[in-house]
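Researcher: Structure for this, please.
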Amino acid sequence: MTGLVLKLGPNERVLINGVVIENGDRRAKLAVKTPNAHILRMRDAIRPDQADTPVRRVCYIAQLVLSGDAEPAEGRKQLLSGIEQLSQVLTDHDSRSLLTQATAAVLQGQFYPALKVLRALLPREERLLAAQVG
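Model: Predicted structure, token format:
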């Protein structure tokens, strides 16, 4: 299959090459044929003030590359560094597996899959941070 297929829910927004596009009242499926287009689902977006934990900061770096606000080469470097730092703390088997997947995606220049995998670590991080406070 060539390109990326976006499945959008009613009124869902997506950022494509710096332009916010909003879907209509019905579900839609869009095929993006342009390679290396900068695409980010707004529902996946993390605002700068929300990038306040280690996993969120790494996700935010991936998001900046996807939105076109960071150069892929610099983003790759920062992402790999951030993933390495996370691997020092998240040592359980499942987290390691996700971090390995994220690393592979970043090395292949696949930043959306990397973001998707990294976002799977957010609930884990939330539990760990809650346990430290409690």
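Researcher: Any notable elements?
Model: The chain has a mean pLDDT of 91. The first strand starts at residue 4 and ends at 8.
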